[in-house]
Amino acid sequence: MPTRCNRRLSLAQRDNDMPSQATLETLQTLGSATLHEAQGQRGAMDHGIKPLDPTLRLAGRALTVDCSPGDNLLVHYAISKAQPGDVLVVDAKGFTEGGPWGDILTLAASLAGIRGLIIDGMVRDADTIIESRFPVFCRGLSIKGTHKQQSGKVNDTIVCGGVSIRPGDVVVGDRDGVVVVAAEALDEVITAAQAREDKEQAFRRELERGASTLDLLDLRDTLARLGLQ
């Protein structure tokens, strides 16, 4: 994959950066785990970022938000600047004693055409969010409220779930987790992921014919080296 650099875009520069609907559907079908493997086991957010509703999948262009722990002013601001199809990716510093996102922000985001939320922090009003079918990936739930006083950054490089993500990068989330794909590597990663899917489908056919994973993955020499016969 190409070397990634720090990037900040003006909010007006993003008009032509949105992946097509067909591309987003392909990413969702391929899934986070396959995309992670296809780009050299890179880009996976840590396992603590989990789907609020595991039945929902998410793929879209990142609108990045860097906010202070326990303060959601910049989240409100980001929604006001978002374009339809954006995914809010929020570095809330892993703060667990407050829920900076709830049912009102979910409704506001949905009406703005935002595809979903990924937050390194907590949310609340879980039942209402799940009923709305709005995809949310977070660290968990906290009923505690937050403030609206601190500044931060919107549409700048952030770290979320241990992964550096720039505005315009693509995020894919599902039951398995969340992966970040660099915008400039998107076509390359999709091609590699589809090739991996084709290879695994061939493996499935061979397994059904009686083959062993030891042979399909060329593991016998490694086992012999380790004295495992």
Summary of the model, kept short:
This protein is of the alpha/beta class.
Describe this structure in words.
The N terminus is likely disordered. The protein has 2 domains: 171 residues, Ribonuclease E inhibitor RraA/RraA-like (Glucose Oxidase, domain 1); 34 residues, no CATH class. The protein has 8 helices and 11 strands. Helix 5 links the parallel strand 4 and strand 5. With 229 residues, the chain is of the alpha/beta class. It comes from Salinicola endophyticus.
CATH classification class of the largest domain: Alpha Beta
The CATH superfamily of the largest domain is identified as: Ribonuclease E inhibitor RraA/RraA-like
SSE string = HHEEHEHEHEEEEEEEHHH
Radius of gyration: 19 Å
Q: Determine the CATH topology of the largest domain.
A: Glucose Oxidase, domain 1
Using the alpha-carbon principal axes, give the shape: elongated
| Average predicted local confidence, pLDDT | 94
Give the percentage of residues in beta strands: 15-25%
Uncertain runs with pLDDT below 50, 5 residues or more? 1-5
Total beta-strand segments: 11
Secondary structure category: alpha/beta
Distance between the termini: 38 Å
What is the count of helical runs? 8
Helix fraction, binned, reads: 25-40%
Compute the number of structural domains: 2
CATH architecture type of the largest domain: 3-Layer(bba) Sandwich
The major β-sheet equals: 9 strands, mixed
